[in-house]
Amino acid sequence: MTFTDRLLNWYHENKRELPFRSQKDPYKIWVSEIMAQQTQIATMIPYYNRWIEKYPDVQTLAQADIDEVLKMWEGLGYYRRARNLHKGAQYVVENFDGVIPRDKKLLMDIPGIGDYTSSAIASIAFSLPEVAIDGNVKRVMARYLNYTESVNTRACHKYFEEFLKEELLKNGADPSDFTQALMELGALVCTPSNTQCIGCPFKEMCACYRGECVGTIPYIPKAKPVPSYDKTVYIVTDKTRILISNDHSDGLMEGLFRLPQVEGHLDDKPNAKLVHKFSHLHWNIHAYIVDSLPETSDDWFWVPLQDLIDTHPMITAHKKILKKLDIL
């Protein structure tokens, strides 16, 4: 059997039943692909279901208030994804009369949609001959083809894309199934830890299965160490209200609220500690419950505690601290 035959046979026998696979709605596929970035499928599914119930189509999302949208996203992290979904929905309404276009190039004009997401929507929703290549697919193809160079290059992407499009077209496969099968194989079988190739449909066709690259491919250059910054967080509450901040001068998580936070650590023992990791930096947080603040800011203001639950989206790091201290 060919590469495509083995891949699709495996997929039809082993694919997971996921809520966004039961239909071809491009909006729902778009939302699912954005949510799945940087987030495990099991984690994002409850968020996806709540999101689709609240915003079932592009028009509903476009008309929503951005604070409400960010509140719905709370807990998923990487909030730029939510903002871009909101902007993207507004763009579709304003430029495409609310209809998501059946064209990869036009899809890439939508805010927040790049090469990968446009290919995913084009192939899965519209069955256009495109292939979405993410980290899972890169791992599958690097092992299959014994690709020893860095997979994080444009040259690598082009090489895999050309191979996969040729396989797709010469076998007349459904692009929707083909794309999802590649993603699913990387997620369920060809994982970083499975170097014994257990459950792989390719067997002797694959270089890793033949033992040529076990444990060495894909090659991903080591990331540079990220800087860590000491932060002090103040918690001022009278049990019904809490002091929060809308200071975004550090350029992080604009549109989300946070607790009053300053640079450095105090000498006193903190009530809670937390290391919060962003993709490009870490916060080493010491949190203190205090009656008053040693300084003031125009960006700090009081809100009812219930608002942090109902209406005010708060950054994950500070919400974790409040939950850890049983304040929320």
From TrEMBL:
SUPFAM superfamilies: DNA-glycosylase (SSF48150), Nudix (SSF55811). It comes from the Bacteria. Binds 1 [4Fe-4S] cluster. This is Adenine DNA glycosylase. PANTHER family: ADENINE DNA GLYCOSYLASE (PTHR42944). Residues 35-188 form the HhH-GPD domain. Adenine glycosylase active on G-A mispairs. MutY also corrects error-prone DNA synthesis past GO lesions which are due to the oxidatively damaged form of guanine: 7,8-dihydro-8-oxoguanine (8-oxo-dGTP). Pfam families: HhH-GPD, NUDIX_4. GO terms for biological process: base-excision repair; mismatch repair. Its EC number is 3.2.2.31. It comes from Erysipelothrix inopinata.
